[in-house]
Each structure stands twice: as C-alpha cells, then as structure tokens.
Amino acid sequence: xxxxxxxxxxxxxxxxxxxxxxxxxxxxxxxxxxxxxxxxxxxxxxxxxxxxxxxxxxxxxxxxxxxxxxxxxxxxxxxxxxxxxxxxxxxxxxxxxxxxxxxxxxxxxxxxxxxxxxxxxxxxxxxxxxxxxxxxxxxxxxxxxxxxxxxxxxxxxxxxxxxxxxxxxxxxxxxxxxxxxxxxxxxxxxxxxxxxxxxxxxxxxxxxxxxxxxxxxxxxxxxxxxxxxxxxxxxxxxxxxxxxxxxxxxxxxxxxxxxxxxxxxxxxxxxxxxxxxxxxxxxxxxxxxxxxxxxxxxxxxxxxxxxxxxxxxxxxxxxxxxxxxxxxxxxxxxxxxxxxxxxxxxxxxxxxxxxxxxxxxxxxxxxxxxxxxxxxxxxxxxxxxxxxxxxxxxxxxxxxxxxxxxxxxxxxxxxxxxxxxxxxxxxxxxxxxxxxxxxxxxxxxxxxxxxxxxxxxxxxxxxxxxxxxxxxxxxxxxxxxxxxxxxxxxxxxxxxxxxxxxxxxxxxxxxxxxxxxxxxxxxxxxxxxxxxxxxxxxxxxxxxxxxxxxx
Length: 551
Known about the structure:
alpha/beta; three-stranded antiparallel β-sheet
C-alpha cells in the first residue's frame, strides 16, 4: 500500500503546474505626505495618515507548466516587476494565491548583497547565501564563478575598484550558481559587453534545453518571440492577453499605437504653462521572512561576518587596533581615573570593576545603535530579494559581539595580571553574557522596526542610553547606593549584568544581583527583559511584510 501511494503521489505531483497564480491582486498605499519624524506628524496630523491607493495588479490568473518558457510583457508601470516580486515572496499579495510546485530562484536584480569594499570572494559568499546556497557551497563554487566571469586576475581586488562591466559579470555568474527548477528573470540576461552577452544568452539556451521552467519579464520582444511558449500581456495591472507569442505581441503593438495616439492628443492640448506630466509611481518591495531556520542562521552569520570584515577592512592592522584601542582606554582609566575618583569606601578591585562595567555597557551601546539603523541602511536588500529582515538587526548585534569579545579578552588579561585566580565561579559569566545578549537583541529588534517609521527614535535613544549609563553601576559599586534607590536601580537588566559579572569574575564577597535587589526586584528585571524581547518579536511579526514599503 505504501509503495502504491508513493507512486500515486509522484504522478499527482508531476501533473501539477510548476507555478499557479490565481486571482492575484496587489495594491500599494502611497502617502500624500511622507512623515519620518514626530514633528512632521504633529505639524500635519491629518495628512500624515492619508494616502492614495495604487492598484499595481488586479485579478491576475495563469499557470506555468514544468519546462515552459513563459514571458510577461507590458509597458513600464504595467505591473510586471510587481508580479515577479509577488511570485518570489518579496511582496505579500492583497488577494489571490501563488502556488509554487518547484524550487524557485529569482533573478530580479543582479548583485544584491554586493558591497564595494569587499573582495569578490566575500561578495560571492554573501550573495550566494542570500539566494539560498549554504555558505560553504557558495565558497566551493567560487572558482567556477570567477572563471565564468573571466575575473581570475582580479580576485583580491575590492569590488569598488571593478569596472561596471566587471561587476555585472560577477553578479551574473554568481546568480546562475543557484540550483532551481523555476527561474524568474526581470531584464537581467543581456549584460556586459557584446562578447559576454553572447556567453550569457548561450547559458540561457542551455537552461531551456535542460528543461528549466522560466518566467521571463522583458522589453526585448525579439527574444520573447524566439523563445517563449506563451506570453502574458499586462496593461495598468490587468491581464490584457495570454496565449501564443505572435497573437500577444500583435496585441501589444496595438496597445502601443493607442498609447502613442493618446500621448499626442494630450500633448496637443497642453500649453507651455501647463504642469509637466508626473512619472509613473514606482512600487517599493516588501521583504517576507524566508522559510527554513537553517537559511535564516546562514544569512545572519554571513552578514555578521561580512560586517565584521568591513569594520576592520579585513586587515591585520585593523584587528590589532581593535585590541590596542580598549587596552589604551583601560590603561588611562587604571592609571588616572581610579586615582582621581575615590569611591568613599574600600572597594576591592575597583579598577577592574570599572573596566568590566565599561566593556559590557559599551557592547550594549554599540550593538543597539547599529541594530537601530540596520533595516533602513540595508533597505536595498529588502526591496530586491526575499530573506528574513530579522537577520539584519541580529547580524548587527552579533558583529558588535565579535568586536567586544576582544575587549572582554583584554579585561580578562587585566584580571589575571592583578592576581585573581580563575575558579568555577567564572562559569557564571555564561548566563550573564547570555542575558546581556538577549536584552540587547530584543531592544535592537524593537528599535529597528520603530526606526523604519519614526526616525526620531535615534535621537531619543541617545538620551535614553545616557540615562541608562548613569543608572547602571559602572562607575559606582551598587552597595554605595541608598537602600531604596538600590532596588530601583536593580530593575535595570544592565545593572543585573554588571553586578553579577563583578561578583562572578572579580569579587565573591561583592553582592550578587539577587542580593542587591531582592528576589522580587531580580524577577522584575528578568520580566522587563522578556517584555522587551516579546515587544520586539510582536512588532516584527506585525510589520515584517511592510518593512521595505515604508523605508
């Protein structure tokens, strides 16, 4: 029975279309008054929430059979790219169904994820991971990417030093490393110089011969006529014609003639004093979380590694300076500040406590600041390729964690030099650092999504961050605070981290976080951490599908 059911299932799958689109509609809200700040919202309270509706697609339906070459044509603004983005999962349709029965690879824009300061190897790894390859697979295929792009002599050169043609060749070669049965193309085939164009078209012919299913958006009507099995004609978001290439292309030419006659009539009526015509609205994309935990982890870690390399330009001097910089700061604090500042009581290892507190708070400050702007600064990625937006703030936090891991190493060196013997108590630093990381990720996630629509968050956070610094026992031991104030201070999760880290790493006689605030206050700090993380995830879930549209 099992074998029969498997055969029946395989036959049923074989008869399914590779792609089914049914009743697909998509519209965009076009704000009448774009507001980024609270001042603008208060200044224009009504206009801030008013918008016009742009119907990009209306009730589109079609099937694409396995191995079929399906072309989509139409004038600019007719909805072709929006259709491809809905199929790829970058846009969320308002209504309708997109059913995929084949593994998909979208080639909506070449070079997504490329950074001009990274060399070809790192760019291929980032771009390949974003498109669905495992990082190790992207690295394994790197030699064939370079060979196809004919860039063997420029492997170690930063991408910013490539000519535009070289960049396009690298991007095209990287894109075709993705193994998929269903390929989406949006005007990305004829690239580079004439010789490379022929090479690309020959590759494209091989894909067709191998039986790949292709959905091809293009204005190149000769290519459509030569290769397409069927053609869909869109006009103003509606399906005007669907069928054999010759019939649909003829209808397209008729629409073009009608459009030109309309334009000429409008131009004849206009006077020199009339306002110029407005260009068509350009629909912005919206990133949708890709399925699969493994891909999410791959994208996050790859982006974090790339950001880390960019921060130090992948140089030995950069990495050494990342160690020397905190070392110099710690020496100044050790030799100058600790001598000038007398805490008022005999505090054991005060200098070390100061260094440890600054290292932990600096990580928190840097990580939340980088996460806050991560979605907006990487908006180009979100608009062009489907991947989990959560990876961007998380990658920013992980990058800072890499960087300030070096700082903690320096602190540990000072601890050992000061004669403190390692003990099992040091293992308490694992949950301490985990709490710090979770709290930082939660705040970074929350603020990154708020920053998409309210840019004042950045200035507000600067002030809040400074307040948090003084409310965290970095420069003063927690036991010096008045008893009533001490409990209030310990509601701050950062206070829990610094107090417990001091107890675990430096002074077992110092109060623990539980002793400093009491069980109720300690539980309150943990609840605050959980609430921040929950609020970030809730906002993520609510706004994730509209992020790129609002950037």
